[in-house]
Amino acid sequence: MGSIKVAIIGVGNAAAALVQGVYLYKEAEEDEFIPGVYAVKLGPYHIGDIEFVAAFDVSRKKIGKDLSEAIFAEPNIVPKFVDVPKLGVIVHRGPIMDGVAPHMKSSFEPYEGPEPELGEVADILKESRAEVVVNLLPVGSEEATRFYALATLKAGAAFVNAIPVFIASDPRGEWPRRYEEAGLPLLGDDVKGQIGATILHRTLVRLLHMRGVLVEETYQLNIGGNTDFLNMTVEERLHSKRISKTRAVTSILPYGEVLEKEGRVRIGPSDYVPFLGNIKVAYIYIKGRSFANFPVTIDVKLTVDDKSMIAGILVDAIRAAKIAMDKGMRGAVKEASAFLFKHPPVQAPDDETARKWFESFITG
User: Fold this and answer.
1) Is 331 helix (H, G, I), strand (E, B) or coil?
2) How far is the C-alpha of 241 from the C-alpha of 90, rounded, in Å?
3) 223 CB-contact burial (10 Å; exposed 0-12 / middle 13-18 / buried 19+)
């Protein structure tokens, strides 16, 4: 089927893990087990079919560099785990907009001067022949995400929205409608980790509900040491993130919205601890009642590498977006989004419905 031409928006730690991961498994055998991906060959596409053709960032340390070098530029801290050859993909200047919070300027070191216009970005995407555009901007980049979603539409590519800005799950339906009218697929929003805090939290809540426990209260507190966590120390950038993570968990329960309204659910990033680096630590607490109202309490601590957890999922999301294009699917791709993202257009249990939807979508 040939390569899948991919453009990256935001050359941060997630991009560093994604690019390296593709080259780590570029020559993997089709029947080989690769941790973190659904399959080495998803439908007609091998991991190695992913080809990076364009990239955008706002950091002076990354703009103008080959993508293979930019993924290791500061403040990125993902270690080098495979040799990535020169890709001939120069990182372009993207619009800053709300992508850089005031407290992040010293870390990101954004360029000074005029920002590129929508048409300029769309033209770069067209010239690169990008088929799939992956949004990896910092949490809170609401305006910038909508800018790139529109540029992607103009360029005639599929959009994979890996961050918690509601594009595929737009409650007004405007963005899914735009992509449907353009005949383009849309996947999102807010990518799930392989074994992240949200997927673990969902699984535990689903287990309790399945076994008849009445969940009364729960929290999930996350800490880490990369720029994502530093960015999220400002609560106003977390509005969509908290909604995304909270609904991913409460949607499991028929009375989940009641718990939210009563203030008995608290989910989201909690603090920035620099020495943790790319390690994320999640603390999950759930309290409920069992038979005869006896208490049930679960306390869990999860420790993972923050970016490797999503890189494999992105590999699947990119290939799913291309498969959707091949099938002529338009608008939000609900089947793939439900399995791969925290805040999809339609929520579904991970282990049964969402996985079956995804498998049916792949096999056609």
Assistant:
1) strand
2) 30
3) middle
Choose among 235, 160, 244, 238: nearest CA to 196: 244
pLDDT digits (tens, 9 = 90+) for 282-325: 999 999 999 999 999 999 999 999 999 999 999 999 999 999 99
CB 358 within 8 A of CB 338: yes
Distance of alpha carbon 247 from alpha carbon 253, whole angstroms: 10
Distance, in Å, from the CA atom of 180 to the CA atom of 87, rounded to the nearest integer, reads 32
**Vertex 276 angle, CA 272 and 279, to 5°:** 100
pLDDT tens across 187-235, in order? Answer: 999 999 999 999 999 999 999 999 999 999 999 999 999 999 999 999 9
CA-CA-CA-CA dihedral for 330, 333, 336, 337, to nearest 10: 150
pTM: 0.95
Pair of tokens at residue 102 = 């005031």
Identity of residue 353: T
